[in-house]
Amino acid sequence: MAPWRIAAAAIALVDEQGPHALSFRTLGDRLGVSHMTIHRRCGDLGGLLDLCADHLAAELPGIPLDADWAEATEARFRRFYELLVAHPGLVALRGSRPWLGQQILARLVEPSLAHSIAAGMTPRHATEAYRRMYLLTLGCASFVNHRDPKAAGSATRAGLAALDPQEFPVLAGHLQEVVPVVTDHEVYNGALRQLIAAAQP
């Protein structure tokens, strides 16, 4: 069983039915093989999730080292963000598990650091800048289900509307301004551009 087939089927299963649906048995049924076939290939659920993450990371762009540093950095991280928000179930399942694997190291981490160093940063400065953008991206993708922004907005609105306006005058009194920001991708894009500007070599 090819790894990419297992990963693609697992991602589709989670996208369609939610993170609770993923198991070796349900995945084996979907692929028409024994759950032990999946188990032998992945080892455990963590191994399966790593396989899925690396499968997605193959979609990250390859950007030449002579491209403009700021533009290349924004393109890499925006695409990483787009992949994460497109698959919230996988992000939820991974939790605090690092997004590491051959593809993500080769298509995001290594080229980001190499590009930053080539642009004039020290290895430490390059790593710090990468880490800030990586954490921003994971955080912005993890806490809102961007595949269903209407539901996310409604849940936020309901929670804020239930607050005592005497105790929370700003949150309860400015719903129209506060709620749309929760699912606005420009919040991430703007923050990413700020980090890039601050790290500019």
TrEMBL record:
Gene3D superfamilies: Tetracycline Repressor, domain 2. The keyword Transcription applies. Keywords: Transcription, Transcription regulation. It holds the Pfam family TetR_C_1. Residues 67-196 form the Tetracycline repressor TetR C-terminal domain. It comes from the Bacteria. InterPro entries: Homeodomain-like_sf (IPR009057), Repressor_TetR_C (IPR004111), Tet_transcr_reg_TetR-rel_C_sf (IPR036271). This is TetR/AcrR family transcriptional regulator. It comes from Streptomyces ehimensis.
